[in-house]
Amino acid sequence: MKLIDGKAVSEELKNSLKQDVLEYKKKTGRVPHLAAILVGDNPASKAYVGNKVRACEHVGFRSTLVKLEDTVSQEQLMDEIKKLNEDPDIDGFIVQLPLPKHIIENQVTLAIDPKKDVDGFHPVNFGRMAQGMPAFLPATPYGILLLLKRYNIETAGKHVVVVGRSNIVGTPISILLSRKSRSGDATVTLAHSRTRDLPNIVRQGDIVIAAIGIPGFITEDMIKQGAVVIDVGINRVEDEGSLSGSRLVGDVDFESVKGGCSYITPVPGGVGPMTVIGLLLNTFKSANKEIYS
Ligand code: NAD
């Protein structure tokens, strides 16, 4: 079994991006600028946004954090989005999810200018992605593609089983891997909560991608000998042995699965850091007008 080290790959990519940003600054006299809207004080969301801001500093981007109370109205949030859409210095921005229950998430997604939608959630980017046109790819699937490429894991002709059909991970990664392209050409099965005989289906996967949100859901008996296992899940579980009383685990039962597979991503340190680099690369593409000229 070989460990797929997302932390190391993301550091390599960040260092290379840092050089590209220096060149960009020399050429244009400015630096790429990413903004994030954070609503409320959900500790996980604060940690994710904090990571993104630190990553911006690392590569030499400017970052702006817009913090809003969790009592913010739909209208106030829309106003903030409008300001960022219209600010010529902002190359891209994200609205950190989840949002409070009274906010209509679809309206938020639709309000973001697709040209600044560096999370790749707007239907314009999603549709362009599905049709193989230039698009901002959703950051986590983008990060998974980068990991597969970095480890020379062939996808053409392989059977990929994706478990979980969310709009931000499962569905887009299943589209990307089945597209006619160098990073795709796989035969993809998208499994979910209504799939019958799931273990038998997962066992057919040459590559298994778990994006479910249930700790240790994928167990040894579901993994074919030699399969590649990509664990997207980030779940906090109690751990009396740790100082904080809890720790992060994935959707894959790492200890039981690791022996039989060829490659596996750990949690933490696998897909998580790759999501951040996916976002930074999208922002750099936006600054260079690579997707929408
Ligand atoms: P989600 O929570 O929106 O949806 C979960 C999916 O799992 C659904 O499509 C559902 O059909 C499927 N599912 C639920 N129970 C199932 C069952 N018993 N059998 C089969 N399928 C089942 O998903 P999400 O937002 O993609 O998040 C999934 C996990 O990935 C979470 O742990 C989340 O924290 C994590 N995540 C990690 C990153 C990262 O950067 N690593 C990014 C996004 C999400």
Q: Name the CATH superfamily classification of the largest domain.
A: NAD(P)-binding Rossmann-like Domain
Number of domains: 2
Look at the structure and give the CATH class of the largest domain: Alpha Beta
Spatial extent as radius of gyration: 19 Å
Order of helices and strands: EHEHEHEHHHEHEHEEEEHEH
Strand content: 15-25%
Shape: globular
In CATH, the architecture of the largest domain is 3-Layer(aba) Sandwich
- What kind of assembly state do the chains in view correspond to? single chain
**Low-confidence spans:** none
What's the count of strands? Answer: 11
Helix share of residues?
A: 25-40%
**SSE-based structural type:** alpha/beta
Ligand identities = nicotinamide-adenine-dinucleotide
Termini, distance in Å? 43 Å
CATH level-3 fold name of the largest domain: Rossmann fold
Q: Count of helices?
A: 10
Main sheet: strand order? 1-11-8-7-5-6
At a glance:
With 293 residues, this protein is α/β, with parallel strands linked by helices. It has ten helices and eleven strands.
Report on this model:
- Helix content is 39%, strand content 16%.
- The chain has a six-stranded parallel β-sheet. It has a three-stranded parallel β-sheet with strand order 3-2-4, with helices on both faces.
- The protein has ten helices and eleven strands.
- The chain is of the alpha/beta class and 293 residues long.
- It folds into two domains: 28-116, Rossmann fold (3-Layer(aba) Sandwich), CATH 3.40.50; 139-273, NAD(P)-binding Rossmann-like Domain (Rossmann fold, 3-Layer(aba) Sandwich), CATH 3.40.50.
- The chain has helices spanning 6-28, 43-59, 74-86, 105-111, 123-130, 139-150, 170-178, 198-202, 254-257, 271-287, and strands spanning 2-3, 33-39, 62-68, 92-95, 159-163, 187-191, 207-210, 228-231, 235-238, 246-249, 263-264.
- Bound molecules: nicotinamide-adenine-dinucleotide (NAD).
- Nicotinamide-adenine-dinucleotide binds next to helix 10.
